[in-house]
Structures are given as C-alpha cells and as structure tokens.
C-alpha cells in the first residue's frame, strides 16, 4: 500500500476576492475548518490561487487534485493550466448538488421549506440570481439537488466502534452550515477524555425548523450528516436523533457523558426539558467552545453582502460559459479537420 499525504492550501482572502469574489469566512476561520477535516494531513497557509509547478515542488507534492469543475482566474484562464500540461494534475468527480452558490442562495430565501421545495417560485428566483448567467447555464455554477446515497455515507463514516476504555460522549443539535463554531465545540468536547468517542445526534429538518424557526435549517439532514462526519473530532452520527435525550438513547449507546454548548436549550414540544434524563443521572456537562460564531452570524454576513455575492456568482457564470463556448468551438474545428482528412 502506498502512503499518501494530503496537503490542502487554502488561498488568502485577497487572492480569493480578486479571482472569485468575497469569501464568506475569514482567513483564520477557513484555515481552522480545513485542519478539522479528518482526511487532511497538512495545510499550506497563504498558497497562491494559481497552482504552479514551483508550488508543487516546494511542498514535495507529486500532483495537484481538483474537482471536475473548472476554476478560472480573474482574466478567465484555467487556474491549473501549468500543472495539467506537465501531467501532474488529477481530477475527482464533484459531489452532485453540493454547491456554495446554492447555499448562499438558500440563506437569502424567506421560505421555511426551501430544502424540500426545489420547484417553488422563491427557489426558482434564487436559481436565476445565483446559478444562472445572462447567456446560459453553467454546469459548474448552477443549482442542483443533492442526492444522498448509502455509499456516500460509507465513504465519510469512520466505521470504528467504541473500544474498551473509550468515553462515549453524546451531543445533539442541528449543526447547520457546519462552521468553525461547531468545530471548536466538538474539539472542546473531545478534550474531555483521553479516549473520546463522540456521537453527534442530528435532528431532522422539521424538528430544527420547529425550535429555530425562520428559514432554518439551511442544509437538509443529508447534507448536514456528511458535513459532521467529515470532522476529525466526530466518531459517529445519529441521523434523525430524537430531540429529547431519553433513557433509551443513553442505554442504547452506553453514553458516559452528554454535552451541550452555552447556547440556549429550547424546550421540547410539550414544554419539557430535553436534557432532563442526563441531568437527573448527573452526566450532563456544559462546554464552552470560546467561540461566539453561530449559523445566524453567517447568514447575516451573506445578507449584508447580498449584491456582492450575486455579482460574484453571475460573473463566475459568465466566465464559465465563455470557456464552454471555446471548448465547443475547438471540438467543432477538430471535427471539421477529421472530416477533411477522410476526404
């Protein structure tokens, strides 16, 4: 078996703003988020937006990997042109329906059921604003529906069961727009034990909407499942966990400790305390993540810069459409050349 090291180079805010538009997260937030992804071995801070052979050699990298969408510079050139020419480029298929463009649009919707209302007129308006340029539709920037499969979950899950001596810690919540506030909380939870086994209970969309209101959750339960599973501090996820942490749940997972952050605990449908059982058993622990970032904060960032994000995505779409048209023209010219050669 060949040992591989995955090095991720998050680009500086200045270069992202120049080539793509304003980023949602700060530079430090993005660095910390990437470090928390369980497959990442190392990150390179301040990496240039255009990947060159010099950059690959500097970090002793054999090749550069990117998704099958195209990434363009501010002047419309392929970001990976140099490494592609040298044969040191590899491509992975992007997960269908996972799009920052789409998530940004959802944050601007007023409907409470956007995650299950693809055909709704509000959602169509979002598609027009965020995933469609004036001259067509790009397959890379457009809005598409995320389709969960058992194989995707298997790829993200650790597959590790609790071992003797592990402290089984249970936390529950929406974990919507999985962000650095969640990461800091989960890291703090994992530090409560030398051998933590952290189980995250994710509430169904309808439950989240009941206690959070507005247009939450932004991400549906399938998207939230993969986001949480990708975190290095998480061992297992309960998809559609009950809102109340019951005795049956605690016994089933043999939970040693139940943790909650310093955020508000909303009552259950009947007005009862959802943490009554672990509180009674003396295993409820409040964890201070020392991070005040919330999903609401991120939504407010998007709303504040709405016009900038709309312009960013429409500009990105226009550049992608220009590349598509150029690719079509090249294929047509090659077809004519082949036809002439036959004649």
UniProtKB/TrEMBL annotation:
One of its GO terms (cellular component) is cytoplasm. InterPro entries: Cyt_trans-like, Ect1/PCYT2, Rossmann-like_a/b/a_fold. Pathway: Lipid metabolism; Phospholipid metabolism; phosphatidylethanolamine biosynthesis; phosphatidylethanolamine from ethanolamine: step 2/3. GO terms for molecular function: ethanolamine-phosphate cytidylyltransferase activity. The keyword rRNA-binding does not apply. One of its GO terms (biological process) is phosphatidylethanolamine biosynthetic process. It is an enzyme of class 2 (transferase). Belongs to the cytidylyltransferase family. This is ethanolamine-phosphate cytidylyltransferase. It comes from Oncorhynchus mykiss. The gene is LOC110512124.
């Amino acid at each position: 078996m060949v040992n591989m090291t995955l090095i991720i180079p998050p680009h500086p805010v200045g270069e992202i703003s120049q080539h793509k538009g304003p980023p949602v997260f700060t530079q430090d937030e993005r660095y910390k988020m990437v470090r928390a992804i369980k497959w990442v071995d190392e990150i390179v801070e301040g990496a240039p937006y255009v990947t060159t052979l010099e950059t690959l050699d500097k970090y002793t990298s054999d090749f550069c990997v990117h998704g099958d969408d195209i990434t363009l510079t501010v002047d419309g050139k392929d970001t990976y042109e140099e490494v592609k020419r040298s044969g040191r480029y590899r491509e992975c298929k992007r997960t269908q329906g996972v799009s920052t463009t789409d998530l940004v649009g959802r944050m601007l919707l007023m409907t409470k059921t956007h995650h299950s209302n693809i055909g709704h007129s509000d959602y169509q308006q979002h598609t027009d604003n965020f995933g469609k340029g004036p001259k067509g539709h790009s397959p890379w920037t457009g809005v598409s529906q995320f389709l969960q499969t058992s194989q995707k979950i298997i790829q993200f899950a650790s597959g590790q069961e609790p071992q003797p001596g592990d402290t089984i810690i249970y936390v529950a919540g929406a974990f919507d727009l999985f962000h650095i506030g969640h990461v800091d909380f989960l890291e703090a939870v994992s530090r409560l034990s030398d051998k933590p086994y952290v189980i995250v209970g994710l509430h169904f969309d309808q439950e989240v909407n009941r206690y959070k209101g507005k247009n939450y959750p932004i991400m549906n339960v399938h998207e939230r499942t993969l986001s949480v599973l990708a975190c290095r501090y998480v061992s297992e996820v309960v998809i559609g966990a009950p809102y109340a942490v019951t005795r049956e749940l605690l016994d089933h997972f043999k939970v040693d400790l139940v943790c909650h952050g310093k955020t508000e605990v909303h009552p259950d449908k009947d007005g009862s305390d959802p943490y009554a059982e672990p509180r009674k058993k003396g295993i409820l622990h409040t964890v201070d993540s020392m991070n005040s970032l919330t999903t609401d904060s991120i939504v407010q960032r998007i709303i504040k810069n709405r016009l900038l994000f709309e312009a960013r995505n429409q500009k990105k779409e226009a550049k992608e459409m220009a590349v598509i048209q150029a690719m079509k023209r090249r294929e047509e010219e090659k077809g004519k050349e082949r036809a002439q050669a036959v004649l």
